[in-house]
Amino acid sequence: MLKIETRFLLEQRLGWIKAGDEIIPKNKLKKFIPANAVIIDAGAHIGADSVELARMFPSATVNSFEPVPEIYSFVTHNTRKCRNIRCFDIALSNESGNTKMYVSSGGSDASSSLQKPADHLVDHADVRFEKEILVQTLSLDDWAKANRINKVDFLWLDMQGHELEVLKASTQILPTVKAIHSEVSLKKTYENAPLYRDYRKWLEEKGFRVEIEAIPEGSDMGNVLFVKNAH
To answer: What is the pTM of this model?
Structure first.
């Protein structure tokens, strides 16, 4: 695993991104979100994307969500020097409460999900899901209300198939969002996870368009940047 500082240098400053990779350079976001943006990083893992976003937008506030306790400790450590990052050890979801999370290990500790793994078990056989934990969940609307936030400019979603559930429940905040970077699934990687075509259709109906697709050929998953259409 690359250190965060090295990854930031290679991806954002030097632009060393492999062709066909699933990475969308964060400098592409400057065209669509304000310098003082309110940003959500849901599924923050060790905080690499949060740190990159905080550095790319030093006047922004990055809200970093990671519910797996062992991973959350890395988030707080890795983001400790970034004053514009706030960390939350909860999972955004479609409702507030407590929910089972399937924790990944083996080949990846970044595949944990509130959705039960399905094709992921076959396509990534080196990744195991041997542990289940109970995590606190909040809807995005409830979190925003509790923190007196009335708008979110940008969503960075890496939630292993749970992204659409969060968005459907965000009736107050979603209309304020200008752009969404989201992981998408080409296969039923997790139970009840929407396929990309259905996810895209739903967002298009909400006024978003696809700006950049980063889906490697033959891959089961990738990333897409959705941008709110101008009125």
So the answer is: 0.90
